[in-house]
Amino acid sequence: MTDLAFRFLGSVDRAEIERGRAFEPLVRAAGLAHVELEKPDLAAAERFYLDFGLVAAARTEEALYLRAAGREAHVLVLRRAPRARFAGVALRVDSELDLRRLASLPGASPLVALEEPGGGSCVRLATPSGVAVRALHGAAERAPLALRAPILHNHAAAKQRQGASQRPPPGPPQVARLGHVALESLRFFRDLLFWMRTFGLLVSDYQDLEEAPELGPVMAFLRCDRGSEPADHHTVALAAGVATGLAHAAFEVQDLDAVAMGGEHLRRRGWRHAWGIGRHVLGSQLFDYWRDPDGAMVEHYADGDVFDASAPTGRLAFRGSHLAQWGPPLPRDFVGPRPDLALGARLVRGLATNDELRLRKLAATARALGR
């Protein structure tokens, strides 16, 4: 990383970014709790997410709480609002002491009791680029919902299923849990340090620009540090961009049949497909992406990688062909809106006010996606 491109970073900042983990994180997150979206048409959003495979857990006049099959009280909150907007993400921490540590940060809220389904306590924070983050502890758990048994495969050299057929039921897939969020960031390096230092996330993989490696990574895949306990390859995927917000939220299902049959159900119900089915390179997930009524992107996935804290940080060139090992071509609108006057205005404002944003980096990123 050159002094010109990263003059706002100190030596400790650079060292932590290079190693992909903070020297002394404040707390270590246990995992994702839920994502919050604001919706102008709550009924339409509910129809989509029920078809997607989530289950209504609770509702008020102004909000709907949707759960998966796991013990979390809810994994998605839909709040009524004048316009569609990503309202933030919540993570679980291990203790009230962790919450008190987080409450000591500049700009953090005091520790407060949650008045919503599940209860518990929380502290509200924000990333340097402005994403609302809640840290939660003590929420009541629900009894898990039964998941169908995973598909038993007859491989070429190992026939595990003998004398029986498989007929997984049609309909919405059973969503097991919220697995990860992918976030776009105007202040990529500051946000990266926030996730590493505040919640102890570890970088599983970086993606760098081949034609300009001195500009540093443009994507980071971060996992929870659970010591010797394996954690998902990424809980937060962070991408450098000209805006800040949610790229997608990803929900785990049982297997490839659940991914495919879930997509078939959504297609029959008339919902908008985004990309898939395929297998990612980083994380190895089998994926299928869909758009909700307001265009927010959500993913069904299965068969993802897990690593414990001893796994080192990897690096892979950033290019469109490295997003999937196999699958259909990457749609243009998957990686961002088409160029227009509004996007141009955001770019001009960003270049004028953000010392992380570089026109050269944006151009190199666009060319890499084209490849």
The sequence of SSEs as H and E is HEHEEEEHEEEEEEHEEEEEHEEEEEEHH
| Oligomer description | single chain
The global form is: globular
CATH class type: Alpha Beta
Helix-strand makeup class:
alpha+beta
Q: Give the neighbour order of strands across the main sheet.
A: 21-12-13-15-11-16-19-18-17-22
Secondary-structure arrangement, i.e. CATH architecture: Roll
Q: What is the count of helical runs?
A: 7
Task: Indicate the proportion of strand residues.
Answer: 25-35%
Provide a short characterization of the protein structure:
By secondary structure, the protein is an alpha+beta fold. It contains seven helices and 22 strands. It has a single domain, classed as 2,3-Dihydroxybiphenyl 1,2-Dioxygenase, domain 1.
Provide key terms for this protein.
371 residues; 7 helices; globular; 2,3-Dihydroxybiphenyl 1,2-Dioxygenase, domain 1; eight-stranded mixed beta sheet; alpha+beta; single chain; ten-stranded mixed beta sheet
Verbal overview:
It is a single chain. This protein has 371 residues and is α+β, with helices and mostly antiparallel strands. The protein has one domain (11-142, 173-370): Roll (2,3-Dihydroxybiphenyl 1,2-Dioxygenase, domain 1). It is built from seven helices and 22 strands. The chain has helices at 11-19, 42-52, 96-103, 188-199, 256-268, 341-353, 359-370; strands at 31-39, 55-59, 63-67, 76-80, 85-92, 112-113, 121-126, 132-137, 154-155, 158-159, 175-185, 202-208, 217-223, 231-232, 236-240, 245-253, 272-280, 286-291, 297-302, 306-307, 314-317, 324-326. The strands form four sheets. Strands 21-12-13-15-11-16-19-18-17-22 form a ten-stranded mixed beta sheet, covered by helices on one side. Strands 2-3-4-1-5-8-7-6 form an eight-stranded mixed beta sheet, with helices on one face. A hairpin with a 2-residue loop joins β9 and β10 (158-159). The two termini are 24 Å apart. The mean pLDDT is 90.
